[in-house]
Amino acid sequence: MPLxxxxxxxxxxxxxxxVATTPAPPLEKITPNAIVDQAPPxxxxxxxxxxxxLIELEGxxxxxxxxxxxxxxVHVENIRHFARAGWWYxxxxxxxxxxxVTQWGVDDPDKPLPAGVVATPPAEYVRxxxxxxxxxxxxxxxxxxxxGFADGWPVALYSDGTASLTHCYGAVGVGRGYDxxxxxxxxxxxxxxxxxxxLDRNIAIVGRIIDGMEHMTALPRGTEALGxxxxxxxxxxxxxxxxxSMVEPAERPAYEVLRETSDEFARYKRVRANRNDDFYKVQQxxxxxxxxxxxxxxxx
Amino acid sequence: MPLxxxxxxxxxxxxxxxVATTPAPPLEKITPNAIVDQAPPxxxxxxxxxxxxLIELEGxxxxxxxxxxxxxxVHVENIRHFARAGWWYxxxxxxxxxxxVTQWGVDDPDKPLPAGVVATPPAEYVRxxxxxxxxxxxxxxxxxxxxGFADGWPVALYSDGTASLTHCYGAVGVGRGYDxxxxxxxxxxxxxxxxxxxLDRNIAIVGRIIDGMEHMTALPRGTEALGxxxxxxxxxxxxxxxxxSMVEPAERPAYEVLRETSDEFARYKRVRANRNDDFYKVQQxxxxxxxxxxxxxxxx
Lengths: 300, 300
Description:
The structure is a homodimer.
Chain A: H1 6-11, H2 32-37, E1 44-46, E2 52-57, E3 61-67, H3 73-84, E4 92-96, E5 101-105, E6 127-128, E7 135-136, E8 146-150, E9 153-157, E10 162-165, E11 171-174, E12 188-191, E13 205-211, H4 214-217, E14 238-243, E15 255-258, H5 263-273, E16 296-298
Antiparallel strand pairs in A: 1-15, 2-3, 2-14, 3-13, 4-5, 5-12, 6-10, 7-8, 8-9, 9-10, 11-12, 11-13, 15-16
Protein backbone atom coordinates (compact mmCIF):
# COMPACT_ATOMS: atom_id res chain seq x y z
CA MET A 1 0.00 0.00 0.00
CA PRO A 2 1.65 3.24 -1.08
CA LEU A 3 1.71 6.32 1.13
CA UNK A 4 -0.92 8.83 0.12
CA UNK A 5 0.30 12.35 -0.59
CA UNK A 6 -1.43 14.98 1.56
CA UNK A 7 -3.56 16.39 -1.25
CA UNK A 8 -4.92 12.94 -1.93
CA UNK A 9 -5.70 12.19 1.67
CA UNK A 10 -7.86 15.31 1.67
CA UNK A 11 -9.52 14.22 -1.54
CA UNK A 12 -10.53 10.80 -0.32
CA UNK A 13 -14.08 10.47 0.87
CA UNK A 14 -15.78 7.58 2.65
CA UNK A 15 -16.84 5.01 0.08
CA UNK A 16 -20.61 4.99 -0.42
CA UNK A 17 -22.15 1.73 0.72
CA UNK A 18 -25.27 0.13 -0.72
CA VAL A 19 -28.30 0.23 1.53
CA ALA A 20 -29.11 -3.38 2.45
CA THR A 21 -31.25 -4.84 5.18
CA THR A 22 -30.44 -8.47 4.38
CA PRO A 23 -27.13 -10.02 3.32
CA ALA A 24 -26.62 -9.50 -0.39
CA PRO A 25 -26.91 -12.62 -2.56
CA PRO A 26 -23.90 -13.57 -4.70
CA LEU A 27 -23.44 -11.44 -7.78
CA GLU A 28 -25.21 -12.74 -10.84
CA LYS A 29 -23.16 -13.36 -13.97
CA ILE A 30 -25.67 -11.79 -16.32
CA THR A 31 -26.14 -8.64 -18.36
CA PRO A 32 -28.65 -5.97 -17.27
CA ASN A 33 -30.64 -6.49 -20.48
CA ALA A 34 -30.96 -10.22 -19.86
CA ILE A 35 -32.50 -9.47 -16.46
CA VAL A 36 -34.98 -7.07 -18.03
CA ASP A 37 -35.92 -9.74 -20.57
CA GLN A 38 -36.92 -12.02 -17.67
CA ALA A 39 -39.41 -9.54 -16.20
CA PRO A 40 -42.95 -10.96 -16.17
CA PRO A 41 -45.92 -8.93 -17.51
CA UNK A 42 -46.84 -7.73 -14.00
CA UNK A 43 -43.45 -6.03 -13.65
CA UNK A 44 -44.37 -3.57 -16.39
CA UNK A 45 -46.75 -0.61 -16.27
CA UNK A 46 -48.39 0.80 -19.38
CA UNK A 47 -47.95 4.48 -20.22
CA UNK A 48 -51.23 6.40 -20.22
CA UNK A 49 -51.91 7.65 -23.78
CA UNK A 50 -52.52 11.14 -22.35
CA UNK A 51 -48.94 11.06 -21.05
CA UNK A 52 -47.40 9.94 -24.32
CA UNK A 53 -46.30 12.79 -26.60
CA LEU A 54 -45.12 11.90 -30.10
CA ILE A 55 -43.01 14.03 -32.39
CA GLU A 56 -42.63 13.12 -36.04
CA LEU A 57 -39.62 14.56 -37.82
CA GLU A 58 -38.85 14.47 -41.51
CA GLY A 59 -38.41 11.06 -43.09
CA UNK A 60 -40.84 9.34 -40.72
CA UNK A 61 -38.52 9.62 -37.73
CA UNK A 62 -40.55 9.36 -34.54
CA UNK A 63 -39.62 10.51 -31.04
CA UNK A 64 -41.72 9.35 -28.07
CA UNK A 65 -41.83 11.29 -24.79
CA UNK A 66 -43.43 10.18 -21.55
CA UNK A 67 -44.89 13.17 -19.71
CA UNK A 68 -44.67 13.56 -15.93
CA UNK A 69 -47.88 15.18 -14.64
CA UNK A 70 -47.11 14.15 -11.05
CA UNK A 71 -44.13 16.51 -11.08
CA UNK A 72 -45.14 19.39 -13.37
CA UNK A 73 -48.95 19.23 -13.69
CA VAL A 74 -49.54 22.73 -15.06
CA HIS A 75 -46.75 22.56 -17.61
CA VAL A 76 -47.85 19.09 -18.72
CA GLU A 77 -51.45 20.24 -19.12
CA ASN A 78 -50.14 23.16 -21.20
CA ILE A 79 -48.25 20.73 -23.41
CA ARG A 80 -51.42 18.70 -23.92
CA HIS A 81 -53.24 21.90 -24.97
CA PHE A 82 -50.45 22.77 -27.43
CA ALA A 83 -50.60 19.25 -28.89
CA ARG A 84 -54.40 19.12 -29.16
CA ALA A 85 -54.49 22.55 -30.80
CA GLY A 86 -51.89 21.53 -33.39
CA TRP A 87 -49.96 24.57 -32.23
CA TRP A 88 -46.55 23.12 -33.08
CA TYR A 89 -47.32 22.60 -36.78
CA UNK A 90 -44.57 25.06 -37.76
CA UNK A 91 -42.11 24.18 -35.00
CA UNK A 92 -38.49 23.34 -35.66
CA UNK A 93 -35.32 22.37 -33.87
CA UNK A 94 -33.61 25.66 -33.12
CA UNK A 95 -30.57 24.66 -31.11
CA UNK A 96 -28.22 21.68 -30.75
CA UNK A 97 -25.39 22.26 -28.29
CA UNK A 98 -22.92 19.39 -28.02
CA UNK A 99 -22.82 17.60 -24.66
CA UNK A 100 -25.79 19.66 -23.53
CA VAL A 101 -29.21 19.98 -25.16
CA THR A 102 -31.31 19.83 -28.32
CA GLN A 103 -34.12 22.41 -28.17
CA TRP A 104 -37.23 22.84 -30.30
CA GLY A 105 -40.21 25.14 -30.51
CA VAL A 106 -41.92 27.91 -32.42
CA ASP A 107 -39.63 30.80 -33.23
CA ASP A 108 -42.31 33.48 -32.85
CA PRO A 109 -42.89 35.02 -29.41
CA ASP A 110 -46.06 36.75 -30.70
CA LYS A 111 -47.88 33.60 -31.82
CA PRO A 112 -51.13 33.52 -29.78
CA LEU A 113 -51.31 30.73 -27.21
CA PRO A 114 -54.08 28.15 -27.63
CA ALA A 115 -57.11 28.27 -25.31
CA GLY A 116 -56.45 26.67 -21.96
CA VAL A 117 -52.70 27.31 -21.87
CA VAL A 118 -51.53 28.96 -18.64
CA ALA A 119 -49.24 31.77 -19.78
CA THR A 120 -47.25 32.01 -16.56
CA PRO A 121 -47.23 28.61 -14.85
CA PRO A 122 -45.92 28.18 -11.31
CA ALA A 123 -42.27 27.16 -10.89
CA GLU A 124 -42.80 23.40 -10.89
CA TYR A 125 -39.14 22.69 -10.23
CA VAL A 126 -39.65 20.53 -7.14
CA ARG A 127 -42.57 18.79 -5.51
CA UNK A 128 -43.22 17.65 -1.97
CA UNK A 129 -42.01 14.22 -0.94
CA UNK A 130 -45.48 13.67 0.55
CA UNK A 131 -47.24 10.93 -1.33
CA UNK A 132 -44.22 10.04 -3.45
CA UNK A 133 -43.32 6.35 -3.26
CA UNK A 134 -39.58 6.19 -3.76
CA UNK A 135 -37.32 3.18 -4.30
CA UNK A 136 -33.82 4.23 -3.29
CA UNK A 137 -30.87 4.12 -5.66
CA UNK A 138 -28.77 2.71 -2.85
CA UNK A 139 -25.71 4.85 -3.58
CA UNK A 140 -24.73 8.41 -2.70
CA UNK A 141 -25.69 11.24 -5.01
CA UNK A 142 -23.26 14.17 -5.38
CA UNK A 143 -26.12 16.61 -6.00
CA UNK A 144 -28.69 15.78 -3.33
CA UNK A 145 -29.33 14.13 0.03
CA UNK A 146 -30.54 11.03 -1.77
CA UNK A 147 -31.61 9.63 -5.09
CA GLY A 148 -33.99 6.99 -6.30
CA PHE A 149 -36.87 6.14 -8.56
CA ALA A 150 -40.55 7.05 -8.31
CA ASP A 151 -43.03 5.51 -10.75
CA GLY A 152 -40.31 5.13 -13.37
CA TRP A 153 -38.70 8.54 -12.89
CA PRO A 154 -35.15 9.14 -11.65
CA VAL A 155 -35.57 11.56 -8.75
CA ALA A 156 -33.33 13.52 -6.41
CA LEU A 157 -34.40 13.89 -2.78
CA TYR A 158 -33.59 16.94 -0.71
CA SER A 159 -33.34 17.44 3.02
CA ASP A 160 -36.01 20.16 2.90
CA GLY A 161 -38.65 17.55 2.13
CA THR A 162 -38.77 18.07 -1.62
CA ALA A 163 -38.00 15.91 -4.64
CA SER A 164 -37.16 16.83 -8.21
CA LEU A 165 -36.91 15.09 -11.52
CA THR A 166 -33.31 15.00 -12.71
CA HIS A 167 -31.49 16.09 -15.86
CA CYS A 168 -30.44 12.63 -16.96
CA TYR A 169 -29.80 11.80 -20.63
CA GLY A 170 -33.10 12.15 -22.49
CA ALA A 171 -34.84 14.26 -19.82
CA VAL A 172 -37.22 16.81 -21.37
CA GLY A 173 -37.41 20.27 -19.83
CA VAL A 174 -39.13 23.57 -20.49
CA GLY A 175 -37.02 26.32 -22.02
CA ARG A 176 -37.39 29.51 -20.05
CA GLY A 177 -36.11 33.05 -19.71
CA TYR A 178 -35.35 34.86 -16.47
CA ASP A 179 -37.65 35.50 -13.50
CA UNK A 180 -40.58 35.15 -13.19
CA UNK A 181 -40.84 33.27 -16.48
CA UNK A 182 -40.84 29.49 -16.16
CA UNK A 183 -41.74 28.96 -19.81
CA UNK A 184 -45.15 27.75 -20.92
CA UNK A 185 -43.96 24.45 -22.39
CA UNK A 186 -44.10 25.79 -25.95
CA UNK A 187 -40.33 25.41 -26.21
CA UNK A 188 -38.79 22.17 -24.96
CA UNK A 189 -35.32 20.67 -24.83
CA UNK A 190 -33.77 17.31 -24.16
CA UNK A 191 -30.42 16.39 -22.60
CA UNK A 192 -28.01 14.93 -25.20
CA UNK A 193 -24.83 14.59 -23.15
CA UNK A 194 -23.53 13.96 -19.68
CA UNK A 195 -26.27 14.83 -17.21
CA UNK A 196 -26.22 18.63 -16.55
CA UNK A 197 -27.69 18.19 -13.12
CA UNK A 198 -26.82 21.74 -12.10
CA LEU A 199 -30.11 22.49 -13.89
CA ASP A 200 -32.12 20.36 -11.41
CA ARG A 201 -34.53 22.50 -9.38
CA ASN A 202 -33.89 25.39 -11.77
CA ILE A 203 -36.15 24.34 -14.63
CA ALA A 204 -39.42 22.46 -15.01
CA ILE A 205 -38.74 18.93 -16.22
CA VAL A 206 -41.87 17.59 -17.87
CA GLY A 207 -40.86 14.15 -19.11
CA ARG A 208 -38.25 12.07 -20.83
CA ILE A 209 -37.63 10.61 -24.27
CA ILE A 210 -38.34 6.89 -24.24
CA ASP A 211 -37.88 6.09 -27.93
CA GLY A 212 -36.23 7.71 -30.97
CA MET A 213 -33.64 9.55 -28.90
CA GLU A 214 -31.12 9.15 -31.73
CA HIS A 215 -33.22 11.51 -33.88
CA MET A 216 -32.51 14.28 -31.35
CA THR A 217 -28.81 13.49 -30.95
CA ALA A 218 -27.52 12.63 -34.44
CA LEU A 219 -28.07 16.20 -35.62
CA PRO A 220 -25.57 18.81 -36.75
CA ARG A 221 -24.53 20.99 -33.85
CA GLY A 222 -25.42 24.68 -34.20
CA THR A 223 -22.51 27.01 -34.76
CA GLU A 224 -23.84 30.08 -32.94
CA ALA A 225 -23.65 30.82 -29.21
CA LEU A 226 -25.47 28.13 -27.14
CA GLY A 227 -25.62 25.91 -30.21
CA UNK A 228 -28.29 27.91 -32.03
CA UNK A 229 -28.39 27.27 -35.76
CA UNK A 230 -26.97 30.11 -37.79
CA UNK A 231 -29.17 32.33 -39.93
CA UNK A 232 -29.85 30.60 -43.24
CA UNK A 233 -29.14 27.08 -42.01
CA UNK A 234 -32.03 24.72 -42.69
CA UNK A 235 -33.48 23.64 -39.36
CA UNK A 236 -35.01 20.19 -38.79
CA UNK A 237 -38.80 20.51 -38.93
CA UNK A 238 -41.33 18.97 -36.56
CA UNK A 239 -43.90 17.61 -38.99
CA UNK A 240 -46.44 16.48 -36.41
CA UNK A 241 -46.69 16.61 -32.62
CA UNK A 242 -49.54 14.75 -30.95
CA UNK A 243 -50.65 12.78 -27.92
CA UNK A 244 -51.22 9.05 -28.27
CA SER A 245 -54.73 9.71 -26.91
CA MET A 246 -55.49 11.82 -30.02
CA VAL A 247 -55.36 8.82 -32.36
CA GLU A 248 -57.53 5.72 -32.58
CA PRO A 249 -56.53 2.97 -30.14
CA ALA A 250 -55.54 0.68 -33.00
CA GLU A 251 -53.15 3.34 -34.35
CA ARG A 252 -51.60 4.35 -31.05
CA PRO A 253 -47.94 3.80 -30.32
CA ALA A 254 -47.69 2.21 -26.87
CA TYR A 255 -44.91 1.58 -24.37
CA GLU A 256 -44.39 -0.03 -20.99
CA VAL A 257 -42.02 0.97 -18.19
CA LEU A 258 -40.34 -1.52 -15.85
CA ARG A 259 -41.65 -0.95 -12.32
CA GLU A 260 -38.86 0.01 -9.94
CA THR A 261 -40.67 -1.97 -7.24
CA SER A 262 -40.21 -5.21 -9.20
CA ASP A 263 -37.66 -7.88 -8.30
CA GLU A 264 -36.21 -7.55 -11.78
CA PHE A 265 -35.55 -3.84 -11.36
CA ALA A 266 -33.78 -4.52 -8.06
CA ARG A 267 -31.57 -7.09 -9.79
CA TYR A 268 -31.05 -4.81 -12.79
CA LYS A 269 -29.97 -1.94 -10.54
CA ARG A 270 -27.57 -4.15 -8.63
CA VAL A 271 -25.97 -5.49 -11.81
CA ARG A 272 -25.68 -1.95 -13.23
CA ALA A 273 -23.58 -1.18 -10.14
CA ASN A 274 -21.63 -4.45 -10.39
CA ARG A 275 -21.26 -5.44 -14.04
CA ASN A 276 -20.29 -9.08 -13.99
CA ASP A 277 -20.58 -10.68 -17.42
CA ASP A 278 -17.55 -12.07 -19.28
CA PHE A 279 -16.38 -8.67 -20.49
CA TYR A 280 -15.83 -7.14 -17.06
CA LYS A 281 -12.73 -7.63 -14.92
CA VAL A 282 -13.67 -5.34 -12.01
CA GLN A 283 -17.01 -4.45 -10.42
CA GLN A 284 -17.42 -0.84 -9.33
CA UNK A 285 -19.66 -1.44 -6.32
CA UNK A 286 -21.54 1.74 -7.16
CA UNK A 287 -23.36 3.61 -9.87
CA UNK A 288 -24.82 7.06 -10.38
CA UNK A 289 -28.50 7.76 -10.81
CA UNK A 290 -28.36 8.64 -14.51
CA UNK A 291 -26.42 5.48 -15.33
CA UNK A 292 -29.40 3.35 -14.21
CA UNK A 293 -31.77 4.10 -17.09
CA UNK A 294 -35.25 2.85 -16.29
CA UNK A 295 -36.08 0.22 -18.94
CA UNK A 296 -38.88 0.93 -21.41
CA UNK A 297 -40.22 -1.31 -24.16
CA UNK A 298 -42.60 -0.80 -27.05
CA UNK A 299 -45.84 -2.75 -27.08
CA UNK A 300 -46.91 -4.15 -30.44
CA MET B 1 -41.34 19.43 6.97
CA PRO B 2 -43.33 16.43 5.76
CA LEU B 3 -42.96 12.98 7.28
CA UNK B 4 -40.71 10.72 5.24
CA UNK B 5 -42.17 7.38 4.18
CA UNK B 6 -40.09 4.39 5.26
CA UNK B 7 -38.73 3.57 1.80
CA UNK B 8 -37.46 7.09 1.54
CA UNK B 9 -35.78 7.12 4.92
CA UNK B 10 -33.81 4.09 3.78
CA UNK B 11 -32.95 5.82 0.53
CA UNK B 12 -31.56 8.96 2.13
CA UNK B 13 -27.81 9.12 2.42
CA UNK B 14 -25.64 11.61 4.25
CA UNK B 15 -25.23 14.67 2.09
CA UNK B 16 -21.71 14.90 0.63
CA UNK B 17 -19.86 17.89 1.98
CA UNK B 18 -17.12 19.82 0.22
CA VAL B 19 -13.68 19.39 1.70
CA ALA B 20 -12.62 22.74 3.12
CA THR B 21 -9.92 23.66 5.59
CA THR B 22 -10.75 27.38 5.64
CA PRO B 23 -14.15 29.06 5.64
CA ALA B 24 -15.49 29.24 2.10
CA PRO B 25 -15.64 32.71 0.56
CA PRO B 26 -19.06 33.99 -0.56
CA LEU B 27 -20.30 32.51 -3.82
CA GLU B 28 -19.30 34.43 -6.89
CA LYS B 29 -22.03 35.60 -9.24
CA ILE B 30 -20.21 34.57 -12.39
CA THR B 31 -20.33 31.88 -15.05
CA PRO B 32 -17.71 29.12 -15.15
CA ASN B 33 -16.56 30.30 -18.59
CA ALA B 34 -16.01 33.84 -17.36
CA ILE B 35 -13.69 32.49 -14.66
CA VAL B 36 -11.73 30.51 -17.23
CA ASP B 37 -11.38 33.65 -19.35
CA GLN B 38 -9.64 35.34 -16.40
CA ALA B 39 -6.92 32.69 -16.11
CA PRO B 40 -3.44 34.15 -16.70
CA PRO B 41 -0.95 32.49 -19.09
CA UNK B 42 0.78 30.66 -16.22
CA UNK B 43 -2.46 28.85 -15.37
CA UNK B 44 -2.30 26.99 -18.68
CA UNK B 45 -0.03 24.14 -19.73
CA UNK B 46 0.74 23.38 -23.36
CA UNK B 47 0.02 19.93 -24.77
CA UNK B 48 3.15 18.12 -25.96
CA UNK B 49 2.90 17.61 -29.76
CA UNK B 50 3.75 13.92 -29.22
CA UNK B 51 0.60 13.66 -27.09
CA UNK B 52 -1.67 15.37 -29.60
CA UNK B 53 -3.37 12.99 -32.05
CA LEU B 54 -5.33 14.54 -34.91
CA ILE B 55 -8.00 12.82 -36.96
CA GLU B 56 -9.26 14.40 -40.15
CA LEU B 57 -12.65 13.26 -41.37
CA GLU B 58 -14.31 14.05 -44.67
CA GLY B 59 -15.03 17.69 -45.38
CA UNK B 60 -12.06 18.98 -43.40
CA UNK B 61 -13.58 18.07 -40.05
CA UNK B 62 -10.81 17.74 -37.47
CA UNK B 63 -10.88 15.92 -34.15
CA UNK B 64 -8.08 16.51 -31.62
CA UNK B 65 -7.22 13.99 -28.91
CA UNK B 66 -4.83 14.48 -26.03
CA UNK B 67 -3.04 11.22 -25.22
CA UNK B 68 -2.33 10.09 -21.65
CA UNK B 69 1.06 8.35 -21.54
CA UNK B 70 1.22 8.64 -17.75
CA UNK B 71 -1.72 6.25 -17.49
CA UNK B 72 -1.38 3.90 -20.47
CA UNK B 73 2.24 4.21 -21.69
CA VAL B 74 2.40 1.05 -23.82
CA HIS B 75 -0.95 1.66 -25.52
CA VAL B 76 -0.08 5.31 -26.16
CA GLU B 77 3.28 4.34 -27.67
CA ASN B 78 1.43 1.85 -29.89
CA ILE B 79 -0.89 4.62 -31.04
CA ARG B 80 2.11 6.79 -31.91
CA HIS B 81 3.51 3.90 -34.00
CA PHE B 82 0.20 3.46 -35.80
CA ALA B 83 0.05 7.20 -36.53
CA ARG B 84 3.67 7.46 -37.72
CA ALA B 85 3.27 4.42 -39.98
CA GLY B 86 0.13 5.86 -41.59
CA TRP B 87 -1.54 2.61 -40.59
CA TRP B 88 -4.99 4.13 -40.25
CA TYR B 89 -5.14 5.40 -43.86
CA UNK B 90 -8.11 3.09 -44.59
CA UNK B 91 -9.78 3.34 -41.18
CA UNK B 92 -13.43 4.21 -40.77
CA UNK B 93 -16.04 4.74 -38.09
CA UNK B 94 -17.59 1.32 -37.60
CA UNK B 95 -20.01 1.82 -34.76
CA UNK B 96 -22.12 4.61 -33.23
CA UNK B 97 -24.27 3.50 -30.31
CA UNK B 98 -26.52 6.20 -28.88
CA UNK B 99 -25.74 7.31 -25.31
CA UNK B 100 -22.64 5.14 -25.37
CA VAL B 101 -19.73 5.23 -27.84
CA THR B 102 -18.48 6.04 -31.33
CA GLN B 103 -15.79 3.57 -32.38
CA TRP B 104 -13.32 3.62 -35.27
CA GLY B 105 -10.54 1.51 -36.65
CA VAL B 106 -9.42 -0.81 -39.42
CA ASP B 107 -11.93 -3.53 -40.18
CA ASP B 108 -9.30 -6.18 -41.00
CA PRO B 109 -7.94 -8.35 -38.18
CA ASP B 110 -5.24 -9.73 -40.51
CA LYS B 111 -3.66 -6.39 -41.43
CA PRO B 112 0.00 -6.63 -40.28
CA LEU B 113 0.88 -4.38 -37.36
CA PRO B 114 3.53 -1.69 -37.94
CA ALA B 115 7.01 -2.18 -36.53
CA GLY B 116 7.26 -1.30 -32.85
CA VAL B 117 3.64 -2.04 -31.96
CA VAL B 118 3.27 -4.30 -28.94
CA ALA B 119 0.69 -6.89 -30.00
CA THR B 120 -0.45 -7.80 -26.48
CA PRO B 121 0.05 -4.80 -24.20
CA PRO B 122 -0.33 -5.10 -20.43
CA ALA B 123 -3.73 -4.26 -18.93
CA GLU B 124 -3.12 -0.55 -18.32
CA TYR B 125 -6.48 -0.07 -16.65
CA VAL B 126 -5.17 1.45 -13.42
CA ARG B 127 -1.91 2.91 -12.23
CA UNK B 128 -0.37 3.36 -8.81
CA UNK B 129 -1.21 6.50 -6.89
CA UNK B 130 2.52 6.81 -6.21
CA UNK B 131 3.85 9.91 -7.90
CA UNK B 132 0.44 11.13 -8.99
CA UNK B 133 -0.31 14.68 -7.89
CA UNK B 134 -4.06 14.84 -7.41
CA UNK B 135 -6.31 17.84 -6.78
CA UNK B 136 -9.47 16.53 -5.15
CA UNK B 137 -12.91 17.04 -6.65
CA UNK B 138 -14.21 17.81 -3.17
CA UNK B 139 -17.42 15.78 -3.54
CA UNK B 140 -18.24 12.11 -3.17
CA UNK B 141 -17.95 9.79 -6.15
CA UNK B 142 -20.47 6.93 -6.46
CA UNK B 143 -17.90 4.72 -8.22
CA UNK B 144 -14.74 5.10 -6.18
CA UNK B 145 -13.26 6.07 -2.83
CA UNK B 146 -12.43 9.48 -4.22
CA UNK B 147 -12.18 11.54 -7.36
CA GLY B 148 -10.12 14.42 -8.59
CA PHE B 149 -7.87 15.77 -11.29
CA ALA B 150 -4.26 14.91 -12.14
CA ASP B 151 -2.42 16.95 -14.76
CA GLY B 152 -5.70 17.77 -16.50
CA TRP B 153 -7.23 14.29 -16.32
CA PRO B 154 -10.36 13.38 -14.37
CA VAL B 155 -9.30 10.45 -12.19
CA ALA B 156 -10.94 8.02 -9.80
CA LEU B 157 -9.02 6.99 -6.69
CA TYR B 158 -9.38 3.58 -5.11
CA SER B 159 -8.71 2.36 -1.59
CA ASP B 160 -6.21 -0.22 -2.90
CA GLY B 161 -3.79 2.56 -3.78
CA THR B 162 -4.61 2.79 -7.47
CA ALA B 163 -6.05 5.46 -9.75
CA SER B 164 -7.76 5.23 -13.10
CA LEU B 165 -8.78 7.55 -15.84
CA THR B 166 -12.56 7.79 -16.07
CA HIS B 167 -15.14 7.29 -18.82
CA CYS B 168 -16.32 10.88 -18.93
CA TYR B 169 -17.84 12.38 -22.09
CA GLY B 170 -15.11 12.48 -24.74
CA ALA B 171 -12.82 9.94 -23.05
CA VAL B 172 -10.97 7.80 -25.61
CA GLY B 173 -10.48 4.11 -24.86
CA VAL B 174 -9.06 1.05 -26.57
CA GLY B 175 -11.56 -1.41 -28.04
CA ARG B 176 -10.79 -4.92 -26.87
CA GLY B 177 -12.04 -8.49 -26.90
CA TYR B 178 -12.01 -10.90 -23.98
CA ASP B 179 -9.07 -12.04 -21.86
CA UNK B 180 -6.15 -11.68 -22.22
CA UNK B 181 -6.66 -9.22 -25.06
CA UNK B 182 -6.48 -5.56 -24.03
CA UNK B 183 -6.52 -4.31 -27.61
CA UNK B 184 -3.45 -2.82 -29.29
CA UNK B 185 -4.88 0.67 -29.73
CA UNK B 186 -5.65 0.05 -33.41
CA UNK B 187 -9.36 0.38 -32.65
CA UNK B 188 -10.47 3.28 -30.46
CA UNK B 189 -13.76 4.63 -29.18
CA UNK B 190 -15.01 7.76 -27.49
CA UNK B 191 -17.84 8.28 -25.02
CA UNK B 192 -20.77 10.17 -26.59
CA UNK B 193 -23.36 10.01 -23.79
CA UNK B 194 -23.74 9.93 -20.06
CA UNK B 195 -20.49 8.66 -18.55
CA UNK B 196 -20.47 4.80 -18.67
CA UNK B 197 -18.18 4.61 -15.68
CA UNK B 198 -18.86 0.91 -15.19
CA LEU B 199 -16.13 0.60 -17.85
CA ASP B 200 -13.53 2.25 -15.59
CA ARG B 201 -10.73 -0.19 -14.66
CA ASN B 202 -12.01 -2.57 -17.34
CA ILE B 203 -10.52 -0.92 -20.42
CA ALA B 204 -7.39 1.07 -21.22
CA ILE B 205 -8.27 4.75 -21.51
CA VAL B 206 -5.62 6.47 -23.58
CA GLY B 207 -6.82 10.04 -23.85
CA ARG B 208 -9.71 12.37 -24.43
CA ILE B 209 -11.13 14.44 -27.26
CA ILE B 210 -10.35 18.10 -26.67
CA ASP B 211 -11.68 19.59 -29.90
CA GLY B 212 -14.08 18.57 -32.69
CA MET B 213 -16.11 16.29 -30.46
CA GLU B 214 -19.25 17.19 -32.43
CA HIS B 215 -17.80 15.34 -35.45
CA MET B 216 -17.94 12.12 -33.43
CA THR B 217 -21.40 12.72 -31.97
CA ALA B 218 -23.49 14.20 -34.79
CA LEU B 219 -23.33 10.94 -36.75
CA PRO B 220 -26.10 8.54 -37.72
CA ARG B 221 -26.46 5.80 -35.13
CA GLY B 222 -25.76 2.29 -36.42
CA THR B 223 -28.78 0.03 -36.65
CA GLU B 224 -27.10 -3.29 -35.87
CA ALA B 225 -26.39 -4.74 -32.42
CA LEU B 226 -24.04 -2.48 -30.40
CA GLY B 227 -24.60 0.32 -32.91
CA UNK B 228 -22.51 -1.23 -35.69
CA UNK B 229 -23.33 0.13 -39.12
CA UNK B 230 -25.29 -2.31 -41.26
CA UNK B 231 -23.74 -4.00 -44.27
CA UNK B 232 -23.85 -1.65 -47.26
CA UNK B 233 -24.16 1.56 -45.21
CA UNK B 234 -21.47 4.07 -46.11
CA UNK B 235 -19.22 4.52 -43.08
CA UNK B 236 -17.51 7.82 -42.25
CA UNK B 237 -13.88 7.63 -43.39
CA UNK B 238 -10.80 8.73 -41.47
CA UNK B 239 -8.87 10.59 -44.15
CA UNK B 240 -5.75 11.27 -42.12
CA UNK B 241 -4.57 10.41 -38.59
CA UNK B 242 -1.35 11.98 -37.35
CA UNK B 243 0.52 13.36 -34.37
CA UNK B 244 1.09 17.10 -34.12
CA SER B 245 4.80 16.27 -33.82
CA MET B 246 4.73 14.81 -37.37
CA VAL B 247 4.10 18.22 -38.97
CA GLU B 248 6.20 21.37 -39.12
CA PRO B 249 5.91 23.57 -36.02
CA ALA B 250 4.29 26.35 -38.04
CA GLU B 251 1.59 23.93 -39.25
CA ARG B 252 0.88 22.25 -35.94
CA PRO B 253 -2.47 22.54 -34.22
CA ALA B 254 -1.82 23.43 -30.59
CA TYR B 255 -3.87 23.51 -27.42
CA GLU B 256 -3.51 24.41 -23.75
CA VAL B 257 -5.14 22.83 -20.70
CA LEU B 258 -6.13 24.78 -17.58
CA ARG B 259 -3.99 23.56 -14.67
CA GLU B 260 -6.14 22.09 -11.90
CA THR B 261 -3.67 23.54 -9.40
CA SER B 262 -4.52 27.09 -10.50
CA ASP B 263 -6.71 29.47 -8.50
CA GLU B 264 -8.98 29.80 -11.50
CA PHE B 265 -9.60 26.05 -11.68
CA ALA B 266 -10.49 26.03 -7.97
CA ARG B 267 -12.99 28.85 -8.56
CA TYR B 268 -14.29 27.18 -11.71
CA LYS B 269 -14.86 23.89 -9.88
CA ARG B 270 -16.65 25.63 -7.04
CA VAL B 271 -18.95 27.52 -9.41
CA ARG B 272 -19.66 24.33 -11.37
CA ALA B 273 -20.96 22.90 -8.08
CA ASN B 274 -22.83 26.12 -7.20
CA ARG B 275 -24.09 27.80 -10.36
CA ASN B 276 -24.89 31.32 -9.40
CA ASP B 277 -25.44 33.57 -12.38
CA ASP B 278 -28.80 35.22 -13.12
CA PHE B 279 -30.31 32.10 -14.65
CA TYR B 280 -30.02 29.93 -11.55
CA LYS B 281 -32.48 29.91 -8.66
CA VAL B 282 -30.91 27.13 -6.56
CA GLN B 283 -27.32 26.00 -6.07
CA GLN B 284 -26.74 22.25 -5.84
CA UNK B 285 -23.81 22.32 -3.43
CA UNK B 286 -22.27 19.43 -5.32
CA UNK B 287 -21.22 18.17 -8.70
CA UNK B 288 -20.01 14.92 -10.21
CA UNK B 289 -16.56 14.40 -11.68
CA UNK B 290 -17.64 14.25 -15.31
CA UNK B 291 -19.65 17.47 -14.99
CA UNK B 292 -16.44 19.40 -14.26
CA UNK B 293 -14.88 19.30 -17.71
CA UNK B 294 -11.26 20.45 -17.58
CA UNK B 295 -11.05 23.57 -19.78
CA UNK B 296 -8.97 23.41 -22.96
CA UNK B 297 -8.30 26.19 -25.47
CA UNK B 298 -6.72 26.29 -28.91
CA UNK B 299 -3.54 28.29 -29.35
CA UNK B 300 -3.32 30.36 -32.53
